[in-house]
Amino acid sequence: MSEVNKPTQAQVKRAIADYVNASGGKATVINVAGIPIKGNIKKLRKNKDMSGMGDVLICWRSKYLEVELKKPKQKLDPDQEERKIEVERAGGEYWCVDGFDDFLNRMIDSGRIRE
Questions:
Q1: How many CB atoms lie within 10 A of CB 52?
Q2: Vertex 17, ends 102 and 52: CA angle to 5°?
Q3: 23-32 pLDDT, tens per residue?
Q4: Which residues of 56-88 are buried (b: 16+ CB within 10 A; e: fewer)?
Q5: Fewer CB within 10 Å of terminal CB in the chain, N or C?
Q6: pLDDT of 72-98, one tens digit each?
Q7: Is the dihedral of CA 94, 49, 80, 1 positive or negative?
């Protein structure tokens, strides 16, 4: 796919959430970038409670899943690695995907959906 036609990260996150919501699950796209300081969106402060949280929160057939969207070969940062450990320790799942197709393939591979 050419760079011109490549969807933005925001579009991919929305596509994941829309797919889950249309398929009987519940998904929410969240803003983890930070909280505006005094209303200035160019100055953000970290929200410690959301540090490392995935971009899309999903409840699918009684299972909790966080999905973090990254560019191909990009790794989770330390806060995300810690969050992944915490979510998995609590019985949920934390996936790092590089696009909608990667997400859909993970859903198929996990047995959550059938092709």
A1: 21
A2: 75
A3: 999 999 987 6
A4: bbbebeeeebbbbbbeeeeebeeebeebbeebe
A5: C
A6: 999 999 999 999 999 999 999 999 999
A7: positive
* Cα(66)–Cα(90) distance, integer angstroms: 12
Nearest Cα to 16, choosing from 6, 27, 8, 32? 27
Q: Are the beta carbons of 76 and 70 closer than 8 angstroms?
A: yes
Element counts in the chain: helices (H) and strands (E):
3, 6
Of residues 9, 55, 53, the one with CA closest to residue 28: 55
**Identity of the residue numbered 2:** S
For tokens 């810690």, name the residue.
Answer: 82
**Gap between the Cα atoms of 111 and 74, Å rounded:** 26
Tokens 């983890």 label which residue? 32
